[in-house]
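Dear H.,

Thanks for agreeing to be a second pair of eyes. The structure we're designing against is below in token form, covering all 1017 positions.
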């Protein structure tokens, strides 16, 4: 008998004895709650869903895999631990046998080993992962109102408290309740008047009436938007590289209004994922579809388009799966998931839903004008008026026709007859290559230098030359389809020089003096005259009209004979950054001087004028008449009116908001990227599909779309979305979710503390018609919500993190709410809802490292300085420092939960940030003017404004002493007093003594810095 067999025989006896003794000593082992977490943490990495990394051909995340025949033995034999390899391996002391292996860094505790042995002995009852099965409508535990039960939530919570041996806390006092509700449902503190009204209302339904009023408040939508915008990673900038601005504020307005209207969550979901695909898409649903553009994008010039399209696809998978499914599908980008049944195929099939979204891989995304009804009507009026004027201008009359005939006679007398020169040679100092066409046009290719000199030789084609013409021609092969080789398609001609020599004696070259430069267009600061000013530092350019054909004409001084001669041109281009000509042609004329650049006529008009009237086609006649009407003196008044109308429309359009919306186009090919390698095209092409282990899409015989995905999300058979949504609402009301890991409902997530309650809530949400306000009201009406947050030492020891809800939770307010609270207390808060983001005070130079372009943060003025924090400009790279100090996320990714730190920096912000200093001195003025006749009355008034309560005697004593101290200091330091009370833009209270106002400012700064002031309790 081998040593291993002997050990197992001896072990078999001990196992039988052990199980015989303990089989009935404890409650049955629950697989999902007790066994799956152990296997997930210690076994699934090597024996889980990822087939590529699976060891020993053993899979422990499914019952079939765990009980499969492994060649004469099984890992798991239900009811027979002695025949289960899994049991032997976890109890082994042999380093070659024991699992997890020593080099994994993992080791089971004795209690974990005992749980697994018991579970196997009890029959190894398997359960599907709790979140992947449809939530059942759990029976509500029996309870009575006498036990402090207000609704079914309390029945579930109290039943669990009985199990763990804890008792619920008493109901909080009324001041605490009104403050808690106000912060939770509106994000704002209650006013003293609102507090007094609730305290005086003794009706049985007083609390419910308060809940209903707060849910009906327009500020409810703002509070809910704070949490939603974290989830969807809303920001005012694109994130990557230069972190440039983009207009997306209309999406935030949509979210606020959706919550205020109590839009059903299923509709809310559809409009964001696929609002543009709805049969009757409206402005509202198109704005909502901007969700798909909230990810980070790049404008970096050197970025690879294919790489960033892969990044965008992956980001959308991560966000949508985290937000709606509470799933870590993003982990399957490079390999099958290690712990949950998500395959790499699932990742890319999910990404394929978003492959139809029109977007720019590298560069600014397309902003879409999005007028409201009033603005749309005004734009329609402009269009009608403009169309009517244009029709008048385009209508031919006998008077116009006669005037056109006279005009043509005048123009014909001034037109030059140009003949293209056909180069016999052309070279570039940089080594760039020339392609010379039969019509004399020259196209540059090959080397692109910072600067260049082109030398072109061409036989003279006229006996006498009076002028030269340079045509610059756009080409699709050039950058930006322009006429130059710079990145934007422009060029700058620094200097043009020309010599003429007899054909028989090229060495006898004579310079041609160029004069009277003219052009049809010149860039601001780069006039055509600079091309012949003998200054290589100047030049002629054509931005922003790089994609249009332009001409420059240069008269030749004296008009020398050119018979049997050779012309040599040098084109100097010294501007740098490759501002060199890309495609051009040189022509000559012997027409008598003066010769100008087409008299301002477009080239196509000039060519028509060269054709005899009776030889012109109808199209040429129409084009010529249209041009004449654009310059005819008879139509000048109408053209002026049209110009004014078009300018008025353009000015009005500037006031109409734009936003990013989804626009569906031909879907890009989506394929599985091996190990996430965007350079590889070897992976299989996949179609849109949901993870295979979840309920299927209701789609047959056609490709699935984003709209199908959106409707699948809130299909009642989907086991995840309702659970995930109510869990996040629960977090808003209780400080943490029933499932603590808000974005991970999988094997690595934390199991629900109250699974039956979670499923009951999920079903309630679906059956209510996905009614968000109904669910929040249900939660805040519960006795569990109304409990005091105070906890004695025994309860803190028994349940330090309030897992079992024997009390309410207390936690610091979110960053935006800390500032809103201070502004509200002072009276500075502006409660306007919606609109573009605003910029409160921020340290100068904070954006100093933002480039492309370099920019300076300009603080807003007036009411915009005092808007709610929800509207603060959200720059991902440099988030507003006050928000950052209080743990607001940068929103580069989905942020399901904010950390809650407690740092000295936060106290420094509350004491020294200009916003809070300004708040303090404005509040101090209110204290002095409204608070009463003496220090005691004023302190009591200030406490009621700040904390909705009276100060106790100790607090009064401390603050009175502080007031006396600062009165003395500021009386002696008047300059310091004036400096303190001048912070911010709010008017300074000139009617008050500066030292007295400064002293009270210091006192209320303390009140604003209290833990109680910034804590929801």
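And this is the sequence the design step returned. I haven't edited it by hand at all.
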């Amino acid at each position: 008998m081998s040593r291993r067999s002997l050990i197992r025989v001896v072990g078999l006896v001990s196992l039988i004895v052990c199980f015989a003794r303990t089989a009935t000593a404890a409650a049955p082992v629950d697989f999902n709650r007790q066994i799956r977490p152990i296997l997930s943490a210690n076994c699934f990495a090597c024996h889980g869903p990822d087939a590529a990394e699976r060891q020993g051909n053993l899979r422990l995340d499914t019952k079939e895999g765990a009980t499969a025949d492994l060649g004469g033995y099984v890992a798991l034999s239900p009811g027979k631990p002695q025949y289960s390899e899994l049991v032997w391996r976890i109890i082994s002391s042999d380093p070659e046998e024991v699992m997890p292996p020593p080099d994994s860094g993992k080791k089971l505790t004795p209690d974990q080993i005992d749980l697994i042995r018991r579970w196997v002995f009890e029959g190894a009852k398997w359960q599907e992962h709790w979140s992947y099965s449809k939530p059942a409508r759990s029976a509500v535990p029996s309870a009575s109102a006498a036990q402090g039960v207000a609704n079914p939530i309390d029945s579930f919570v109290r039943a669990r408290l009985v199990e763990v041996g804890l008792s619920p806390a008493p109901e909080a006092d009324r001041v605490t309740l009104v403050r808690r509700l106000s912060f939770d449902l509106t994000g704002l503190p209650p006013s003293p008047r609102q507090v007094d009204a609730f305290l005086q209302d003794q009706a049985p339904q007083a609390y419910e009436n308060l809940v209903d009023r707060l849910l009906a408040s327009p500020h409810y939508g703002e509070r809910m938007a704070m949490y939603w915008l974290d989830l969807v990673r809303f920001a005012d900038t694109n994130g990557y590289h230069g972190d440039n601005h983009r207009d997306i504020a209309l999406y935030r307005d949509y979210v606020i209004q959706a919550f205020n209207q109590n839009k059903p969550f299923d509709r809310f979901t559809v409009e964001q994922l696929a609002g543009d695909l709805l049969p009757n898409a409206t402005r509202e649903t198109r704005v909502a579809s901007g969700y798909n553009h909230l990810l980070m994008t790049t404008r970096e010039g050197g970025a690879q388009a294919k790489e960033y399209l892969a990044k965008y696809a992956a980001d959308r998978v991560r966000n949508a799966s985290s937000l709606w499914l509470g799933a870590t599908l993003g982990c399957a980008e490079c390999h099958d998931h290690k712990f949950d049944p998500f395959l790499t195929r699932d990742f890319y099939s999910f990404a394929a839903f978003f492959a139809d979204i029109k977007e720019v891989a590298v560069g600014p995304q397309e902003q879409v004008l999005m007028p409201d009804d009033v603005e749309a009507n005004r734009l329609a009026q402009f269009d009608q008026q403009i169309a009517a004027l244009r029709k008048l201008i385009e209508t031919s009359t006998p008077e116009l026709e006669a005037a056109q005939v006279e005009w043509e006679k005048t123009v014909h007398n001034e037109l030059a007859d140009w003949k293209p020169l056909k180069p016999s040679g052309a070279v570039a100092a940089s080594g760039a290559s020339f392609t010379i066409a039969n019509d004399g046009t020259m196209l540059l290719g090959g080397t692109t230098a910072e600067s260049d000199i082109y030398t072109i030789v061409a036989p003279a084609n006229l006996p006498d030359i009076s002028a030269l013409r340079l045509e610059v021609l756009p080409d699709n092969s050039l950058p930006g389809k322009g006429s130059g080789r710079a990145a934007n398609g422009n060029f700058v001609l620094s200097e043009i020089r020309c010599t003429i020599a007899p054909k028989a004696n090229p060495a006898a070259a004579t310079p041609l003096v160029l004069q009277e430069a003219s052009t049809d267009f010149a860039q601001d600061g780069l006039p055509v005259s600079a091309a012949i000013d003998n200054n290589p530092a100047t030049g002629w350019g054509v931005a922003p009209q790089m994609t249009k054909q332009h001409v420059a004409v240069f008269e030749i001084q004296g008009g020398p004979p050119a018979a049997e001669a050779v012309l040599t041109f040098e084109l100097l281009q010294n501007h740098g950054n490759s501002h060199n000509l890309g495609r051009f042609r040189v022509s000559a004329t012997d027409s008598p001087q003066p010769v100008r650049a087409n008299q301002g006529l477009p080239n196509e008009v000039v060519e028509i004028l060269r054709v005899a009237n009776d030889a012109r086609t109808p199209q040429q006649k129409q084009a010529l008449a249209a041009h004449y009407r654009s310059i005819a003196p008879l139509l000048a008044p109408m053209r002026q009116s049209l110009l004014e109308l078009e300018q008025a429309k353009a000015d009005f359009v500037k006031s109409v908001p734009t936003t990013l919306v989804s626009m569906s186009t031909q879907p890009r090919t989506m394929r599985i990227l091996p190990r996430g390698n965007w350079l590889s095209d070897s992976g299989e092409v996949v179609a849109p599909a949901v993870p295979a282990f979840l309920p299927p899409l209701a789609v047959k015989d056609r490709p699935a779309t984003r709209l199908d995905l959106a409707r699948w999300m809130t299909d009642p058979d989907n086991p995840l979305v309702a659970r995930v949504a109510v869990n996040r609402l629960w977090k808003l009301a209780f400080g943490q979710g029933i499932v603590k890991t808000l974005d991970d409902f999988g094997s690595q997530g934390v199991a629900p503390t109250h699974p039956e309650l979670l499923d009951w809530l999920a079903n309630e949400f679906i059956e209510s018609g996905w009614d968000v306000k109904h669910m929040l009201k249900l939660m805040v009406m519960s006795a569990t919500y109304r409990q005091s947050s105070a906890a004695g030492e025994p309860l803190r020891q028994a349940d330090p993190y309030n897992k079992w809800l024997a009390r309410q939770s207390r936690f610091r307010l979110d960053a935006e709410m800390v500032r809103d609270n201070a502004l509200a207390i002072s009276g500075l808060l502006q409660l306007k809802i919606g609109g573009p983001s605003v910029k409160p005070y921020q340290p100068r130079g904070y954006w100093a490292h933002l480039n492309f372009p370099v920019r300076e943060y300009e603080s807003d003025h007036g009411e915009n300085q005092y808007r709610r924090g929800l509207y603060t400009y959200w720059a991902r790279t440099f988030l507003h420092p006050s928000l950052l100090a209080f743990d607001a996320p940068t929103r580069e990714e989905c942020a399901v939960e904010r950390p809650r730190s407690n740092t000295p920096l936060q106290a420094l912000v509350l004491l020294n940030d200009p916003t809070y200093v300004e708040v303090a001195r404005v509040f101090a003025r209110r204290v002095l003017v409204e608070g009463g006749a003496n220090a005691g009355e004023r302190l009591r008034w200030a406490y009621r404004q700040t904390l909705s309560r009276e100060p106790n005697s100790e607090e009064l004593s401390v603050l009175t002493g502080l007031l006396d101290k600062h009165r003395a200091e500021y009386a002696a330091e008047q300059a310091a007093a004036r400096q303190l009370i001048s912070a911010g833009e709010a008017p300074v209270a000139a009617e008050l003594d500066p030292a007295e106002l400064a002293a009270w400012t210091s006192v209320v700064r303390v009140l604003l810095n209290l833990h109680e002031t910034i804590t929801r309790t």
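Two observations from my side: The chain has 34 helices and 16 strands. Residues 1-7, 9-17 have pLDDT under 50 and may be disordered.

Warmly,
E.
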